[in-house]
Automatic annotation (TrEMBL):
Cross-referenced PROSITE patterns: CB, TYR_RECOMBINASE
The keyword Isomerase is assigned to this record: no
Keyword terms of this UniProt record: DNA integration, DNA recombination, DNA-binding
Domain Core-binding (CB): 1-84
Stored InterPro entries: CB (IPR044068), DNA_brk_join_enz (IPR011010), Integrase-like_cat_sf (IPR013762), Integrase_catalytic (IPR002104), Integrase_integron-type (IPR011946), Integrase_recombinase_N (IPR010998), Integrase_SAM-like_N (IPR004107), Tyrosine_recombinase_XerCD (IPR050090)
Domain Tyr recombinase: residue ranges: 101-314
Protein family: Belongs to the 'phage' integrase family.
Protein name listed in UniProt: Integron integrase
Species of provenance: Amphritea pacifica
């Protein structure tokens, strides 16, 4: 908890409005940064020109990415428009232009090679990233109730932009996933015997105080240690931290000898999208599976394939060589 009464009041307001803890942490970071940038002046004494000056500083002096600029602006906009009730109005700020970067992807053979060097739990995690197109945080936050073996689907709750979506569940993962679920439920049963259980979202622990005993709420990939819930302060078990997956990936790609590409957890999501498009899947379906709000975001993967539309061929390939 911050020592600043002002920041604490912002935190309380965000929780009352139902913002996720991750958004809360991000917004408070940028609001704190904004206040320090303005020599600790109270935001109510500042205005649109000060906001533009701050964003320009981030773009020009700190050279932050355009998405970082957007996040900072969203945080400041929340501060003024919703918390202080001092609407900023139209700022007229133009984001820094950045050249489009083509994402790094893996082909099927490279994915297979890396997956062979994971132990069971990490194998399932990275198979979901590649087979379902999940972000690493979305994967690690999955609960038992989010897996549907009848429809072979995965439900993602509170994804990026606080959106829910349904994506594919690889049929090949049914056996390993059921084993993972059984192990998680054994962990939950042991925790329940001590009066504790998985951490619950938002204020669900108040509305349903015994929900932590229900199998559906157990994480697929629970942390090995207990922690204090950030809202209630009660001891609970959270999901694995993303750093655990990153360490496993670094070890696996080293063993696989696939070190010629800058591979991250997100690379498997990129590879999921690219493989679907290469197989002829329409871009709107891929957009829905990835949870992109704008199809233009999904279109970047067509550039990875070297084609802007499915089935497009190079003119050279149509020549008859004699």
């Amino acid at each position: 908890m911050s020592k600043s009464p002002f920041l604490n009041s912002i935190r309380e307001a965000m929780r009352q409005m139902g913002y996720s803890l991750r958004t809360e942490k991000t917004y408070l970071y940028w609001i704190r940064y904004y206040i320090r940038f303005n020599q600790l002046k109270h935001p109510s004494e500042l205005g649109g020109e000060d906001v533009i000056r701050f964003l320009t500083y981030l773009a020009n002096q700190q050279d932050v990415a355009i998405n970082t600029q957007r996040t900072a602006l969203n945080a400041i906009a929340f501060l003024y428009n919703k918390f202080l009730q001092q609407p900023l109005g139209e700022l007229g700020f133009t984001y820094a232009k950045r050249s489009r970067r083509i994402p790094v992807v893996l082909n099927a053979a490279e994915v297979q090679t890396i997956l062979q060097h994971f132990k069971t739990r990490d194998l399932v995690i990275f198979s979901l990233l590649y087979g379902s197109g999940l972000r690493i945080t979305e994967c690690l936050r999955l609960r038992v109730k989010d897996i549907d073996f009848e429809r072979y689907s995965v439900t993602v709750h509170d994804g990026k932009g606080n959106k829910d979506r349904v994506t594919l569940l690889p049929r090949s993962l049914e056996g390993p996933l059921k084993s993972i679920i059984n192990q998680s439920l054994i962990c939950q049963k042991e925790d329940n015997s001590k009066g504790i259980g998985p951490s619950l979202p938002h204020a669900l622990y108040k509305k349903y105080p015994n929900a932590f005993r229900q199998p559906g709420w157990m994480y697929l990939f629970p942390s090995q240690s207990l922690c204090a819930h950030p809202l209630s302060g009660e001891i609970c078990r959270h999901h694995l931290h993303p750093s655990v997956a990153r360490k496993a990936l670094n070890k696996a790609k080293s063993l696989a000898g696939v070190e010629h590409k800058p591979i991250s957890c997100h690379t498997f999501r990129h590879s999921f999208a690219t493989q679907l498009l290469a197989n002829g899947q329409d871009i709107r379906t891929v957009q829905e599976l990835l949870g992109h709000s704008d199809v233009a975001t999904t279109q970047i993967y067509t550039h990875v394939l070297g084609q802007h539309f499915a089935g497009t061929q190079s003119p050279a390939d149509l020549l008859i060589v004699t």
